[in-house]
Specification:
Length: about 350
Amino acid sequence: MNITVIGAGAIGGVLGAYLARAGNQVVLCDIAKEHVQKINQDGITIEGPKETFTVSCEAMTPEELVERGKPLEAVFLCVKAHHTSLAISQILPLLSDESFVVSFQNGLCEKKIQGLIGKERTVGCFVNFSADYLEPGRILYGGVAALYLGELDGVISPRVEEIRQILSCWGPVEVTDNIWGYLWGKMSYAGLLYATALVDETMAVVVRKIELRDGLMELCSEILEVADKEGVNPLGFDDWEPSLVYPRENRDCRLLNLQLESLANRMATNKKTKSGIWRDLAVRKRITEIDQQLVPIIEIGQKHGIEMPLTTFLVHAIKEIETGSRQMDWQNLYELHERFEMVRANETTN
């Protein structure tokens, strides 16, 4: 299988490097010309928790890929969610009826991709390992975590089995008949990750902040309630278990606190202790993916008549940090918690 990785940054760089090292035919494609040049000159370096290695791999810019004119077979789409439409439009002339795109992205990007190229050429993917683009040709890799592949209609097809086998050189990839369950489970987790980026602190420290925990779990519950209305059963992964958070009335605080402590331990021992969201805001000084991740969920929630005050506040706060009108500070999380207490008080009086 010929594989083209579109977006050779954090996720794409790691996967592409492992695939190339295993002898697969891989082309890395990225808009950053200096990144492409460095890879072609010196290879791509992955700095992981267990090993650091450099592997040679062919790299191109999107313009060079299109100019080459060679039809694409398997496309691993690893760009930021807000670059999805542009990335697909650039490679569209290179896609045949047999081509397919696998979305190694955060959010519900599969919905957008299938609208652009058709459901039959779109493969769903849930990926949770952490990584960061450090500089041209150099990627920080947090280590193996969950990765699931699935057709959008739930069929276990030969092509997802083949992709699973090819990706086994990276780690324990699994195939699922409920890829939407994992994607929505990840979105509830994304709410928590965005909240941790409201403060300049590690993810583990925020999760262990007991006095803020109820508000954080209500934030996640808002997202899970939307999934419920959409008829999706969100699934857990890597010490995040949505069923312990929602439905609210079934929540066992003792079990949930134990699970969250396990999650905090995982976060604390990861080579990447702060989220990619934090890095976008604090280091790279660029916008996050919140408009393509949480904003669409608020819009879906509105269609179901679901109010999402905590998610709405979170979106506004992140956007203000993006523009510099708000700074990362613990006060942001306490403001979130105050809104939770207001909601709880209103429910008590009504």
